[in-house]
Amino acid sequence: MINLYIASSPLQLFNCVEARDRFHPDDENHLLFVYKKGIDLEQARPLLDERWASKAFFKWTPCSRLLYGFTLKGYLKRFKTSENLYLGYPFNIRAHFANSLDARVWIVDDGNYSVWLAGQLANPEADIWRHPSVIDRLFRRRVSTEYLQRAGFFTTYLLAQSSGHEVIFNDFRGLRANLGRLSQSEEVIFIGSPVIGNVVRTEAQFFALMTQVSRYFNSRVIRYVAHRYEDVDRLRDLLEGLPFEVVRFSTLIELQFVLDGHRPLAVASVMSSALLNLGLIYDLPMTAFRVPDAWIPECRKNAVDVVYEQMEKDGVSVVPVMEQYPAELPISEKSEA
Do residue 121 and residue 255 come from a single domain? Predict the structure, then answer.
């Protein structure tokens, strides 16, 4: 049996590997990794193992985005008999493959995007439903998302089963079976994500948020693990005066603890999907800090609310952040920190 996996982030690839090893250990599994930045490929490297029958890499640029209907035509023909197609994102090049192959389509998690996507499927007016434009037809790009009507989900979220959409729970049994013995550290890990402009509006709100995170953990030193798209130097400036050690891991956080040989005491975040993943894999206490509605950009409020509601259903402890909170620590407290 031939199966094709298209991933465009380290996390998508991580979930593709879990699906490969769980459902298709003896099949012919092929990977197409689509990436924008070098760090995407760098953090994905530990997952590019020899169990892939083939690995292809596609750099996403303005030119390649325009021409993939032509440039990937030969590659696509190789997989006409594919039985399963695993996608980490439903649009553009992924939709082109889904519409070109007679394969069963599965959506793997791309952060908490799966939660939002699953909630849109029953809405015929939702933005997920896209049709080819004149330009798409001219460049042979088959980008219709009607294929989502028959797609299944392989997800860590407890999504409700719906008509035509099979949901298989991803409990990371493959990785957990190979964990071995990990020592227990006393670290608290805060999982970063690009929240400024997406979940909070201003840097002052971000500082107030992180001040409350620090107070929640009794002002102990916390390792802030930066998202691959966060600016580490800028974060260190923003968090000056608070007891956070800002670091960036060489691979995705779900794998880093295995490489380090120990697991933390607890994990926390604003709303990173890695929070739930780490809780499932390493059996860790999970805490999400819910920002006040007034801080959330208007265009993002619905999506943010959906994610927090799903986190509560999945057993994450959700701690509300106070809106009326000083944007800066008093000078005396800064000097003591």
Answer: no
